[in-house]
Amino acid sequence: MALGLSAGQKAADALALVPQLVTADHDPDADRRALGSLCDWCVRFSPAVAVDGEDGLLLDITGTDHLWGGEDAMLADLLERLARWGVPARGAIADTAGAAWALARYGEPRFGSGRAVVPPGGQREALARLPVAALRLDEAAQAQLPRLGLHRVGQLYALPRAQMAKRFGLAFTQRLDQALGAAGEALAFRRPASPWFARLAFFEPVSAPEDLARVAADVLALICKRLEGEGRGAKRFEVVYHRLDGKAFAVPVGLARPGRDAVRLAKLVAPKLDVVDPGFGIDVITVHAFAVEALAQGQARIDAELDAAEALAPLVDRLVNRLGEGRVWRPDPVESHVPERAVGRSAPLAAPAAARPWSPDLPRPTRLLKRPEPIEVMAKLPDDPPLRFTWRGRHHRVQAAEGPERIGQEWWRGDFDAAGPGRIRDYYRVEDEAGGRFWIYRQGLYGDGDPPKWWLHGLFG
Amino acid sequence: MPGSREARIEALRGRIAAIEAGTRTPTPVLPFGDPRVDSHLPGGGLPRAGWHEVVGEGLEGESGAATAAFAALLARPRAEKGAVVWVLRRSDLYAPGLVNLGFPVERLVMVRVRDEAEGLSVLEDALATPGVSVAIGEVEAPDLVAGRRLQLACERAGGFGVVLHRRPYGGPAKGATGSAAFSRWRVGPARGRAPPDGLGLGPPAWRVALERCRGGRPGAWILEHSEADHGPHPFRVVSELADHDLAPAPPERLRRAG
Fold first, then answer.
1. Closest-CA residue of chain A to B255
2. InterPro entries from the entry (chain B) (predicted)?
3. Could you report the per-residue pLDDT of A267-276, keeping only the tens digit for each?
């Protein structure tokens, strides 16, 4: 900027000023991703970090600055680390998010140390000399104010609020109040602040795989001890490894029911450690617990009479964490006549579904094809079950048949045409000469436009 | 001395059984409730802890419908005692169909795995878990090492395992190798009997061959699903087929008998 360049300048103008300028295309997605990873990294300063617009981060450092020996030292450490990786940044600490935003962008020491720390309650004076753009106003107000001779924030303090609100909208007074601390402001933190958080920092960075597993066990033991002390358990844990160069690797583990057994959790984390690339070493490890629920003080171990679900939970946890969410399920009844919709999936240890269980009297196949397959049939009469059919290139002679069971589409589910008479299915259970039993259906009715088609939908055992 | 020869053989059998059992108490068994089947099995039934192979005949090796139904019925007496884990490669198992067979689906946990090795390790893990009474796995062909591991897992936790041999559609048939399973059953569909009123289809039936069984004799039967009051197994023996002890029956003869 010392060269006269500024954001929003035309490329040709900039090149005229600085002929050796290197230009790159603007990539908003990459910027957002980078800001996101920076946001994750900032968790080491405070658990509550919010992404602010396109180019800012807001940290709620309430109660964490003493770890760095004061606000100024903390901010200096943060900016110094960023500068070391070539991220030019300015920062400010103030009582309100609005004041910190204004000072970081428009503060006096813009090009000096790049940081400003406002003493508690000092935002009114600190903001007075800043341009009105520092108030995060909408474009119309921002353009209008200088025309009225209002250039500095301090000039606005004395003006009557009601008339200002009338002229510039309620958002204007609200922004002013937020910056000065007279109105609250809700920040959308990227990671909701959770009290269930534990952290371990190391004097020497660790990188050996067995060390990674061990420190995970240590930090999990910390949080589990706290959970136990307060009679709680959590369903999801996220162990995050922070690398020296600021990259963070998260290892999530889930439990089927709330738990706080550090040894078991560590065993779930261990096989997932291959996603962690220690590089030059890991210096901080953090763990978050989510879905924290009350968990009664149970007897830790009793091998004899185990509750069935209690015994199954470790297996389900192992499988879900190894294979993934959608690969372990319990089939649950869904009240629908359409065969492919009659089965829902729920978590293996969830409470049983409220729907009526499947009837044992309706014949249903053991294997249901995901997609019905067309078959060629020969039937004596249009409404009869077929005498023979060909499926996957093989001929089957039907020896016995049972049916039909008529199943209509569910018209309430969407467009009516898809549920018309052409969509009615007549299911037959047929047995071929070898004893194989098939579930076939005829879709559509005769004498109604398209001739009906035959499909094979399932196989009986 | 023919009498003493019989006695000697009997004594030797007793010693062999003692060596096989080691210091363990005799294992509890699940009888089929019909002497025509039970006489082929050592101790008069299938042991409660152990695993068994079910192989499909012909197309059943791909579709796996009759084998799944047979395995579900075979494991049903144990399935009522705890959780059931069914390991699949394709999620085409239809739970309402198992309800038709009286299988307790409310305790069923389905697991879909990506490959053979994962399937075998999940099956082993399930069998070694105390709360799981039955684990059924659909894999292509477990080798001896995997089979041995399954056996150890069964013995540790008392689980009942069934391995359904199922190959991908259109895939080549892998020859059944030697395995550590307690028994191997070859299952194909059989024509069911017509119901008394002559309408529709009767209960499902299977042509079942016990190909090998540790300490037992091979045999072949036609079994039918029936909610019987004899024995814990929901099977009824319709007829006994050729005696495999004397000569393995060619398949066409089986078909005629069926």
1. A434
2. ImuA, P-loop_NTPase
3. 888 888 888 8
A-chain residue closest to B118, CA distance: A323
Q: Which of A310, A343, A401 sits opposite B94 (nearest CB)?
A: A343
The rounded mean pLDDT for chain A is 83
According to DSSP, residue A192 is labeled -
Domain count, chain A: 3
For residue A13, the model assigns a pLDDT of: 83
Q: Stretch B39-50: mean pLDDT, rounded?
A: 85
Q: Which residues of B touch A367 (CB under 8 A)?
A: 63-65, 68, 92-94, 97
CATH number for the domain spanning A239: value is: 3.30.1490.100
Q: What is the mean pLDDT of residues A50-66?
A: 85
**Higher confidence at residue A109 or residue A102?**
A102
Average pLDDT of the segment spanning A57-84: 86
Q: CA dist B126 to A96, A213, B149, Å?
A: 55, 25, 12
Residue where one domain finishes, among candidates A321, A337, A357: A321
Q: Which residues of A touch B70 (CB under 8 A)?
A: 461
Q: By residue range, what is the domain housing residue A424?
A: 367-460
> For residue B166, which of B51, B94, B92, B67 has the smallest C-alpha distance?
B67
Q: Which residues of B touch A402 (CB under 8 A)?
A: 199-201
Query: ipTM score here?
Result: 0.81
Which DSSP letter does residue A392 get?
Answer: T
Intra-chain end-to-end CA distance of chain A, in Å: 77
User: Tens digits of per-residue pLDDT, A292-342?
Assistant: 888 776 555 544 445 666 778 888 888 888 888 789 999 999 888 888 888
pTM summary value? 0.66
Residues of A in contact with B129 (CB under 8 A): 311-312, 314-315
Residue A36, phi then psi, degrees to nearest 5: -65, -45
Instruction: For B75-99, write each residue's pLDDT tens digit.
Output: 888 888 888 999 998 888 999 999 9
Confidence check: pLDDT of B186 > 80: yes
Range 152-181 of B in CB contact (< 8 A) with A: none
Does the beta carbon of B69 lie under 8 angstroms from any beta carbon of chain A?
yes
Unique residue bearing structure tokens 């892998």: B174
Q: Does B118 contact A323 at a Cβ distance shorter than 8 Å?
A: yes
Distance from CA of A340 to the nearest CA of B (A): 9
Q: Which of A302, A315, A328, A429 to mutate to test the interface with B (most CBs of B within 10 A)?
A: A315
Q: Which domain holds residue B206?
A: 30-257
Q: Looking up tokens 């897992």, which residue turns up?
A: B153
- CB proximity list for A369: less than 8 A, separation 6 or greater: A456, A457, A458, A459, B92
User: Taking CB atoms and an 8 Å limit, are A367 and B94 in contact across chains?
Assistant: yes
Residues A164 and A286 occupy one common structural domain: no
CB contact under 8 A, B189 and A435: yes
Instruction: Look at chain B and report how many structural domains it folds into.
Output: 1
Tokens at A384, concatenated: 């009869």
